[in-house]
Amino acid sequence: MIDQNEDDEKTRIRNLNDSFRASGQGGRIVSTQGIQQLSSVDQAAVFEKIRVFDACTQANDPHGEHEFGSIEYGGEKILFRIGYYDQRLEDHNEN
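Above: the chain's sequence. Below: its structure in token form.
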């Protein structure tokens, strides 16, 4: 039996993740050195592909929270992840 509170929380998290990924608002975007070394045009293209990403499936999103994905750009596979941290960015935030 599915716990309604757990389902509601998963839906809330999924909506927050989708909103952040689409807008970049409400959080902080951090990128790897590999992304930072791309030209500003390439960086913008990568972030745009992440912004419009909507290919979450049971296979790549088993928890249904839309916090992870991968895109292709310039012949490379680029992974992205949305994580929750405390205000100091030191510890994972369960809320």
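The first helix runs from residue 4 to 23.
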